[in-house]
Fold:
Amino acid sequence: MSSNPAPSARPARPVVAWIGLGIMGSPMSENLIKAGYDVTGFTLEQDKLDRLTAAGGTAAGSIAEAVRDADVVITMVPASPQVEAISYGPDGILENARSGALLIDMSSITPRTSVDLAEAAAAKGIRVLDAPVSGGEAGAVEAVLSIMVGGEQADFDEAKPVFEALGRTIVLCGPHGAGQTVKAANQLIVAVNIQACAEAVVFLEKSGVDLKAALDVLSGGLAGSTVLTRKKDNFLHRDFTPGFRIDLHHKDMGIVTDAARAVGAALPVGAVVAQLVAALRAQGDGGLDHSALLRSVERLSGARL
Structure:
């Protein structure tokens, strides 16, 4: 009898290492486990490692241990300095992942950092995709994230099944760094949208209108948006439990304003909103959800918070 597998046999799923198990990383890694992937994770918080093992994953004691046997390494950390810290050096990903592995960085960082990482990884025989996401914690939990990818077509095609376990809209946007550029534009649109919604909420309340009714009808018209749909309850109940923290959006607004300056693009409204995000952070609200831009508008409108 032939020892060859039956033609219908499904190819084995790649072994995945996941570095960074925060608000986004934990539910995303769990969705991969649910999809049948073998996931080994590493992060600095023991409770997050415990959560991973409870979901069926494996906890590693170091980055090196996590990535050593992985076919795919996925990183989801806060910003460029953290990506550089986990990627470079003797204990980092590039020195410990095997040649031929695919590194998918899903963090939101500067396009330049992504390009530099891809170049450094290539020297080690490691392929890289930058693949930041949009959709917040809810999108991560529900596996409906938008994933904007930069890198080579062949690597994107190989990673597609992994992405499909995490998101719904998955697009290769161009070469290395392109995913991060599109994510920066995404964060610009989201921040301006939240600011506009926040201003509308204060205007409506001060006018004595039923806020819930008003937001319901606005959601159904041209003013409707994913931002308004996702954040409506935050505005109504003043619930600013972080799904995406002001601190991180402040970082992202810095990325988009710097990148826009580099290419000569004017962002007049974006620059104002970037300053409002910075002001909210300076007022001690950096740990709140970005829908807390409402608090800034309330302060400007005379509220004592």
Remarks:
- Residues 5-10 have pLDDT under 50 and may be disordered.
- The two ends are 77 Å apart (CA to CA).
- The chain is about 55% helix and 10% strand.
